[in-house]
Model the fold of this input.
Amino acid sequence: MNFEDSLRTALQGAVKTVIVGIGNELNGDDGFGIRVAERIHQSEKSISILAHTVPENFISVIAAEKPSHVLFLDSAFLDASPGTLSLLGTEDLARIATVTHRIPLSKIIERLVGLHQCQILIIGLQPKNMDVGSGLSPEVRETADELVDLLNNIFSI
Done:
């Protein structure tokens, strides 16, 4: 199953999804999650939160929305080509490294699920360049734009 089909399947039956953009847009491709989250159309089915480098500060905000699904967007070292997306589950967090968190994403998810039971999904993106002030690489910019289109399509149905 390809990424798009996997994502569509994982979001099937989603009543309300909170999309959480994680990253630091000043550090090159680490801005991926923020770029995508800020461009998702808000609707009854989806809202976006720009958590930047402190997703732990938004646990209560996310839980208060009472989502059926939470989708975290973050750069992650996937040992893949730059711009590659991977749909990850919480069990995958032990084998991959995410980039700009003070608190591990697994701990944030654990606390969130303790407050509100929901389906957790993580979209990890393989960065190319994490240099300060470099902006998104062309590969990551293209992938981010495609993901925005895909998510807007999924949530418009």
